[in-house]
Amino acid sequence: MTKNQDHQSLLAVFDREMREHARPDGPGVRVERTGDVVRQAGAAHDWNGVVWSSPDLDAARADAAIAAQVAHCVERGYEEFEWKLYAHDRPADLGARLLAAGFEPEDPETLLVAPVADLPTEAVLPDGVRLRTVRDEADVELMGRAHEQAFGSDWTRLRHQVLARLKEDPDHFVGVLAMAGEEPVSSARMELYPGTGFAGLWGGGTVETWRGRGVYRALIAFRARIAAERGFRYLQVDATEQSRPILRRLGFTVLGTTTPYVYRPTS
């Protein structure tokens, strides 16, 4: 099999398992197939949005599908609703059509996937730093502190989601803290998707003074070991420009890009 064939095969598996046949990513949410799209629907603090659209979507059907999702967002009273657009989705101008319908694009991210068996699983840490899993609400607050310092973004919505996963579905969620003494210097999450073979890596933000010292790589290895122990075959990441080079050096393959298009009825 050529490198391109391997790439296309892996992308097809990802599209089928993680998008077209998506599973709910937390308690209290549903995955709904409606017309030409698959979406997740839950409460206001959950992630709500489109995860897959039919590859047969043409221009006329695309506009109808977009209008239906806008109506769904307004009917449910969501503050925001996301259409997760991938570079290979059709029609080719789907992003422009979402923009015309009032969706706002956020920064694109790189979709990377790696077989768990090909990844390092030994977490090599700088002196004075230790890793541990998140156990309770106090740990979630430490995650939030690290997240807000690393990304400069509000933790409120993620806090609700992480607490719900930890309390109601702990078998399919892993939270990790990197601690220097009593201070959180990085945090990360892993979502385990039963029946798919995939686990998703999220977060991984490190506070500025600790960057470039191997903490991010250690968080990848720590979660890869857990995924391997639980029998998952692949790790998937939506990576920023900052983390993409590290992930590629570790053995992840770039499958394309994904751009969140967000609809906010009150904006």
Description:
The chain has seven helices and twelve strands. By secondary structure, it is of the alpha+beta class. Strands 1, 2, 3, 4, 5, 6, 7, 8, 9, 10, 11 and 12 form a twelve-stranded mixed sheet that branches. Strand 1 and strand 2 (37-41) form a beta hairpin. The mean pLDDT is 94. It comes from Streptomyces laculatispora. Pfam families: Acetyltransf_1. Residues 129-267 form the N-acetyltransferase domain.
Task: Summarize the model shown.
The chain is an alpha+beta fold and 267 residues long.
The radius of gyration computed from the alpha-carbon positions, rounded to a whole number of angstroms, is: 19 Å
Number of strands: 12
Reading the helices and strands in chain order gives HEEEHEHEEEHHEEEHEHE
Overall pLDDT confidence: 94
Looking at how many chains there are and whether they match, the oligomeric state comes to single chain
Going by helix content, strand content and strand pairing, the class is alpha+beta
Shape type: globular
Fraction in beta strands: 25-35%
Unreliable segments of 5+ consecutive residues: none
Strand count, sense and barrel status of the largest sheet are: 12 strands, mixed
Q: Residue share in helices? A: 25-40%
Q: Output the number of helix runs.
A: 7
Distance, first to last CA? 48 Å
Pfam families: Acetyltransf_1 (PF00583)
Protein name: GNAT family N-acetyltransferase
Domain N-acetyltransferase: 129-267
Organism: Streptomyces laculatispora
